[in-house]
Amino acid sequence: MTVSAQERPGAAQTASTDLKEIAADVVRRAMQGGASAAEAVAMDGSEFSTVVRLGEVETLKESGSKAIGVRVFFGQRAASTYSSDLTSEGVQQLVDSALALAKVTSEDPFAGIPEPAQLGKLEGDLDLYHNDVYSLSTADRIDYARRAEKAALDADPRIINSEGGTFDAAIGYKVLANSHGFVGDYQRSYCSVSAVPIAQVEGSSMQRDYWYSVAMTLKKLESPEEVGKIAAQRTVRRIGARKVKTAKVPIVFEYTVAGSLVGHIFEAVNGDSIYRGASFLTGKLNQKIAGDNINVVDDGTMRGGFGTSPFDSEGVPSRKTIVVENGVLKSYLLNTYTAKKLGLQTTGNASRGLAGTPGIGPGNFFLQPGTKSLQEIIGDIKEGLFVTEFLGFGVNLVTGDFSRGASGLWIENGELTYPVEEITVAGNLKDMFFNIAEIGNDLEFRSSIASPTLRIDGMTVAGE
Amino acid sequence: MSVTMDKKFFFDRYGLAQADVERYLSAALSAGGDFADLYFEYQTSTSVSLDESMVKSATQGISAGCGVRVLSGERTGYAYTDDLSPERLLHAARTAALIASGPAKQPVVGLTNKPAHNLYPVPLPSVEAEVLAKVDLVQRADKAARAYDPRIHEVRVSYADELRHILVIGSDGSFAEDAQPMARMSVFCIAKDEIAGSARGTAGGGGRVALEYFQGDASPEHFAKEAARQAIIQLDAREAPAGEMEVVLGPGWPGILLHEAIGHGLEADFNRKKTSAFSGMLGRRVASDKCTVVDNGTMPGRRGSLNVDDEGNPTENTILIENGILKGYLSDKLSSRLMGIPNTGNGRRESYQHIPMPRMTNTYMLAGQDSPEDIIKSVKYGIYAANFGGGQVDITNGKFVFSASEAYLIENGIITSPLKNATLIGNGPDVLTKVSMVGSDLQLDEGVGTCGKDGQSVPVGVGIPTLKVDRLTVGGTGG
What we know:
The structure holds two protein chains of two kinds.
Chain A: H1 7-32, E1 37-53, E2 56-74, E3 77-83, H2 88-101, H3 138-155, E4 159-178, E5 183-199, E6 207-208, E7 211-215, H4 224-236, E8 247-248, E9 251-253, H5 255-268, H6 271-275, E10 296-299, E11 320-325, E12 328-329, H7 336-342, E13 350-351, E14 359-360, E15 364-367, H8 374-379, E16 383-391, E17 401-412, E18 415-428, H9 429-432, E19 436-439, E20 449-450, E21 454-456, E22 460-462
Parallel strand pairs in A: 9-16, 15-20
Antiparallel strand pairs in A: 1-2, 1-4, 2-3, 4-5, 5-6, 5-7, 8-22, 9-21, 10-11, 10-15, 11-12, 13-14, 16-17, 17-18, 18-22, 19-21
Chain B: H1 9-14, H2 18-28, E1 35-51, E2 54-72, E3 75-81, H3 86-97, E4 112-113, H4 128-148, E5 152-170, E6 174-193, E7 197-207, H5 220-235, E8 242-249, H6 256-263, H7 268-272, E9 293-296, E10 317-322, E11 325-326, H8 333-339, E12 347-348, E13 357-358, E14 362-365, H9 372-377, E15 381-393, E16 399-411, E17 414-419, E18 422-427, H10 428-431, E19 435-438, E20 443-444, E21 450-453, E22 456-459, E23 461-464, E24 467-475
Parallel strand pairs in B: 4-6, 8-15, 14-23
Antiparallel strand pairs in B: 1-2, 1-5, 2-3, 5-6, 6-7, 8-24, 9-10, 9-14, 10-11, 12-13, 15-16, 16-17, 16-18, 18-24, 19-24, 20-23, 21-22
Helix pairs in contact in B: 2-3, 4-5
């Protein structure tokens, strides 16, 4: 099987100059149409994905798309439109609709784009793009997926089925232009390999788990064999999982799930939630919100980070922000609008897709690692729970109430014993961050939000 | 039935002719394959949102494209383009064709239109007056929520609608076109009290309806009061209990239980691959004999309804469980062909960028004989869950969760204190066997559900009458 795999990146290269011109042109047309300010964002993405199941190719998908969005202001009124029609006619309709729409919105004293002095880009190579993610032939890409699945199927006789092995690659190109003359662009690459095996033994229910590796370059991707092997280990250790009795015990959250707990800090320091009073951290600036051992950083400048970019979605340079220092909340994360609302400065965390008003997005947001290994953390626990997967999204950011389904392994006398499922773990985020008793040394970024393994005391495990 | 091309949306807008379509399908089958189809989509959307009593944003958008699919045995090749020029469409077709490796095949010449339902109105494209009417809706909701109680501190309202034109043409000559409206209104409130702190409430609804729908019972005031009511009640909520107990689910949206506990597990793709906890259980008892569950895509105006699915097949009312016995799966073209079962018209996709797969439409349990009051009275100690946030399921081991956003303690047959948010967790294949009472008060949700699977979101509906589950784990923190 052969395919013109190299065609899209080439096409994206030609398109990039076009898209920059189109974005700048959209801003120009909006200003000519009477807008007092305007901002355009354009995106060009290519994706490839394949699933191999039980050794056979199941799906093969390859495509690309482009689109543009514009936000216009008439004084303090704003509106936005987006379209995948990039013809001159389509672009004019995009601008005209936005200008018409802005007449129906309210005057908002804080609406607007950043000041010219706030705009800029990080200099130097941020290591966000590697064209090797698209360098493989289709046959080789399929082989990645096949090898990952095969490694999982071969790892253990109890692996009896599979949802498949996958290989994905993607390239995204983004342009931002505004009426202060800012025009910026960057490209980002991505590849991943995964395996999802299913295990079963006579007389117990099927279990599935997975493992994956994700990187911006093939060079940093774990080998498919390693991914498949880990996926199999994680799956077979779930065989025979059972419920446990309802109890209050120490809970160790593996780094694979601890990131989602730290993600709740990100959501709670989001400027939109703060000014609306929709966060349990509203009004807590410079107050203790966690134990002395907790330090949380948002760093949009790390070379090769999943959350790194030269500028945010309003053209403000990305930066490093200390969010929590020794348990004290030092900064919210803000864009231009939320900063003005709160009488603060933007932290360069504006985030937007094609449509609508910018929200708040993370740079590389993480809890600083500690020194203990997983074995050391578990070794201290007489009876407790090791959580390896969450189920559901039972988190209330207004009150901090937290209650989620979980599965994992039971800890007895410092060792992992039998697998556990059909239980929930519950507490309140306001307390949980004060009760982090141990922090692991295993911080690893698999997305833009990450945390090392955490032990949290005082939570309730609900089961029988 | 032959089709008059020049009257059709895509043929008009993009100057497509039948010969073009045949050329693209030929390219898709140029390396063999059992079947190919083209899925054209053109979607316009409008949204208006209000925050702090200001209409802070109004957005309109257009997206259009075409996805080309080639099926070859169990394999699927897929490519899409947002550029509907002949070169890009041919390129997409040739890319999708790479899944197969055999001699070229020819598509059937000529197109056949299957009879389809007519379940929803087709609104005219948005005009400026309509945008003002939408602004009026969000402003009315804001006023009503704030008027409900002085402790309502923050109100956010959004209104969003879309109109999606689709055209599906298969290499077997099948042809289907549909124009699918969707509208939804949402209200989010925060109540604040010096002593009790803050609490939230949410409500919303809509469906495949036009703007006028929100001038009736489903008014902005209705949703606003409901969101405000929930927020105020939550101010007094106490810790939810932890552990196994009797659970009564209120009618309507708590039907998300069915969606998570059994619906996903009955999607044919998982059962074809034998990765579902329900694999091989057809004809077996999976619920108490009081339970009959259907997936019905043919209800007029409902959020999960469709005249035709995203493979061009008319939707159906499919019995999943009848008096407790598992009767059927939800299938699409690929799974029905490979499994030798009927195609139930459940092949859905998020957009032209996505491969269709079996998905639910409106999934609900038929009404039973018990009065809702008797159901509550029968519980000595347990919880009454009136409203839920979302849920999730692991289809392989059958474990599912759904999170109560409005729940109360039941003590000696009487509803007492409101409870804080708690997740409920259970096992899909046996939770319905523990349903001992089924109310006479079947309700469907008001039109808020969105289901995610493999990264694809589609609108769905759910419903149940009041139900009693004899044992379910409640994930609170209290004793």
